[in-house]
Structure prediction request, 526 residues.
Amino acid sequence: MDIKTFNTLEKATDKSISSFAKLSLALLFMVVVFLWSYTSHGDVPNNTFLIIGAVFGAYMAMNIGANDVANNVGPAVGSKAMTLMWAIIIAAIFEAMGAFIAGGDVIKTIKKGIIDPALISDPQIFIWAMTAALLSAALWLNFATSVGAPVSTTHSIVGGVMGGGIAAAGFAIVDWGTMGKIAASWIISPVLGGVIAAAFLYFIKTKIVYQKDMINSAKVIVPYLIAIMTWAFSTYLILKGIKKIIKLDFLTAAGIALIIAVVAYILVKPLIAKAADKLENSRVSVNTLFTVPLIFAAALLSFAHGANDVANAIGPLAAINDAVMNSEIHSKVEIPFWILAVGALGIAVGLALYGPKLIRTVGSEITELDQMRAYSIAMAAAITVIIASQLGLPVSSTHIAVGGVFGVGFLREYLDSNETRFLQGLRKKFKKHKKELDSMTKELDELEALEKKSKSNYVRIVELYKVIEEKQEVVKQEKKDVKEAKSVKYVKRDAVKKIVAAWVITVPAAAILSAAIFFMIKGIMG
Prediction:
């Protein structure tokens, strides 16, 4: 995706919706949540923190929409499989659907079991800790979005809960084994995502792009790729997206998904053949065959994300609600519909208002994407989650998706830094012009060595000086081009450093911020 195109889109968006208008709409949503929670719980004793928690939950949900959803649609937008506007519309609809349909009725109050709520005996202290967790996670996400760093919302809320818990009951409240697994996921998630994405892209390159007849190769390979994608996403959706509605084991889910994949293969094979017959034998043409699958992938990833990550916004809010309503602390609570709505609508609002910034980062500012590369990233997202869930490894969808972007970018660097036709062509031109330069330099030396020079010799010497000077510039530039081609970099190192740094400090930053907010609340409440 051309960065200039994204800049143009962002400028057009800014003209139609100014920064002030975006902020006003975001505040309006939070005001609506405040009014609803106040009017519906006005007669509930000790309802102050429930109302505050609802506002913070809305703020957190908007930040999830602004930061995390980009991972689902960024590659599709970056590859031009869909426009920015349609990506926002599709993601907003399917994120909300996932949250409403499969968000579930029961949720663990403490995300990932990182602290033991039983060690907090006072419900009031617990409410303060959860309020601090919500606000700190939301503030950290807001900061990360403002600097264009896609971070894990799960890790943000985990850090918030950990910091609030430590401030409330000391370090003993934390399950450090679980925290160790979460720290390991900083490496596991992007590496798995990167390796799987690179493997798919390498397969596509060797089986289609590097073939003499790309069209016939695509007719054979693309239906299988779509079938594999259908299997992966069906399995992913059954295991992760609708687990709150119906919970199936991996083998059952994979078996059902396999049947769906076979049907998909039978249906798409003739359609791909028909579409391929109209295409030219070029990489650009073959890329178009991946457009429709990418749109479906973006929609399905958004649905599954909404179903799973809405808990990051409403888990602590549901815990606050339960503690206020029952004056007790429970490990699992029911989610009232209004809390689910705060999470679902908040994600959609945040995506619509502030999502383009991170979509641009994931889609184009790390590396250039086309449909084949975006397809590989989507596959990595689905398959990595499936593998990790079966092995019991904690992974982040954000880290997987961005790791996939890194993977395809670094694979391109590796392949293009080897003996490619492009590099061979540059070397051939350089050697030819260098040989010509050496020959002319030798001729000039011979002419200047003559004791007696004719008029034609002097004319030739002048011509040679001029031509040699021009040829030296050409050879110098071609030498530079060969050097750059050998060390070509398709992944922007500055973007990698910024994102990795944000990943590493997410949990501790959110934890420190949460602890500070908890002590501030405690000081105010006295």
